[in-house]
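ingest -> fold -> write
write: protein_1
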Amino acid sequence: MSQKQVLLNAFNMNCVGHIHHGMWTHPQDRSVEFNSLSYWTDLARLLERGLFDGMFIADILGVYDVYQQSIELTARESIQLPVNDPLMLVSAMAGVTQHLGFGVTANLSYEAPFPFARRLSTLDHLTQGRIGWNIVTGYLDSAARAMGMKQLLAHDRRYDQADEFLDVSYQLWEGSWQDEALVVDRRRRLYADASKIHPIDHQGEFYQVQGYHLSSPSPQRTPLLFQAGTSERGVRFAARHAECSFVNASTPAAMRQQTRRLRQAAVESGRLADDIRIFMGVGVIVAPGEREAQEKYRSYLEYASPEAGIAHFSSSIGVDLAAFDLDTPIETGETRAIESVSKAYSGWTRRRLLEQHAMGSRYPLIVGNPSQVADALLQWMDEGDIDGFNLTRILNPQSYSDFIDLVVPELQQRGRYKTAYQPGSFRKKLFQQDRLPDRHPAARWRYAAGRR
């Protein structure tokens, strides 16, 4: 049985209601303060105290307007609306921490590779190599319309565009500047050697880019790459590009099937099975005693909004769930939304979904004392063949502080969680090297002696 140490990200979003909808109404929740910089810097300090590997910041463009064909419930319950830019938070949080990584979500469907590559290189410099990018292609028609399109591109075409976006980005990050280009010699008045700075010339189906990358090589060059798609096309994309992948399943056995599929796909793409760190999303309610934890859970149920949870879910699958009676099976059919989720829930009823979303979310929930929570997490780890967790916030910051004070010591005592940070970049902490390995497709764009 595996004895891997648990990797841990805090799963958050620059908004009020993220995953566990309705919990913003709890008197101990601070999420309504999300427009305050101190809210984020306090959280970053807390997570670093708990030795979290990273803060993963989700994001969407567009609004959840599928349920009841309106944003009425979305606005009333603050279902990821309002939502602010995740990248803007990083510099402030990096300034009060030394080790915490930051995985930021950015939708490449509405970005241009040339300025976007500069933004992430800038953050990689300012964080000293602690930036990651969660690569998404979007799933909301509302975002496409806001960007001047009639609707989203078809699911697989979005991934075709993503493949090309990554190829352009790799050329900028890995190939435009050689490592030796930056000289910084005051005596010779030579800051950079122009002979070692090269323009890219990409002429593709989606992008035509000619020019020099505007940033000098950052500690990681290419940011740590996250991705979450588990459709057939999404797995092919992850197998080629992703270093960290988010996968969810109903049981550890089902999770192992998913992880084997993903790791095998990586091998078939010329990489190693261990080149991908796999995370699952989970919520934890913990207290010193089991009875106290169960009481806490029951009290939380009074604030959660199952209806807000399935309103969020409606947009995830592109189906207005309000149009179905409680016990009518839901047929999702073809969708341009999240394909893997849509297929998994076809045939469910609205009543069953409301029961599943009792805590305002469909994420797995672990409730118990520290030993019970650790047992459950390690069962997912070992039987599901995953590497760690994206820990959702139920109450912010209490969900994280409870976990740090109660669960982290239990995992450390079992030898399954670090007791100190290793030095280095986000990638080095997870993979023992600052830059992508030579077997990653980005490496083909690197300069080397005598070849290009």
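write: protein_2
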Amino acid sequence: MKLYTKTGDKGKTSLIGGRVSKDDLRVETYGTIDELNSFIGKAVTELERPLFDDIIADLETIQHELFDCGGDLANVMKERKYKLEEVSIEALEKRIDALSDEAPPLKRFILPGGSQAAATLHIARTVTRRAERQMVTLMNEVEDVPTIIQKYLNRLSDYFFAAARAVNARLNVKDVEYVRSGDVFK
């Protein structure tokens, strides 16, 4: 099997049920989700077992769910069933709560960073926020998109923040507070 098809040589790409320009907002949105998935893969390589087995398992689940998001966004058929479900959001919320309990309470904003894995998780958080902004624009321009993806991305960025802080806490690496921040978390 050849990896190249040459069908995109003129700037068009296939969706499930149609073709669009490669710079279509739908393609841009699921492309950003794909970029995010790659950063998650990088984060997994930076986490040591067994200390981070739970977070690695979370990240692998999230990678599958992001493929679901991409497939759901790429599907423009009239009759379709989406793969991403509310249960994924509920699972993220439980993990956010558990991971948040591992890190010291926050009073101020923190700088992204700390350990290498935490820094990569912060990159994943910011790419998630970009995907979420693109998703909101897509929802405003196109009525027929799965809005659950926006909700999932919103929760996912919170997960990455909590996971980055938990990684630093487990490694005894202190988060660096933004020095000009007032107390914003109470």
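write: annotation protein_2
The longest helix spans residues 116-141.
The domain at 19-75+85-170 is CATH 1.20.1200.10 (Hypothetical Protein Ta1238; Chain: A;).
pipeline exit 0
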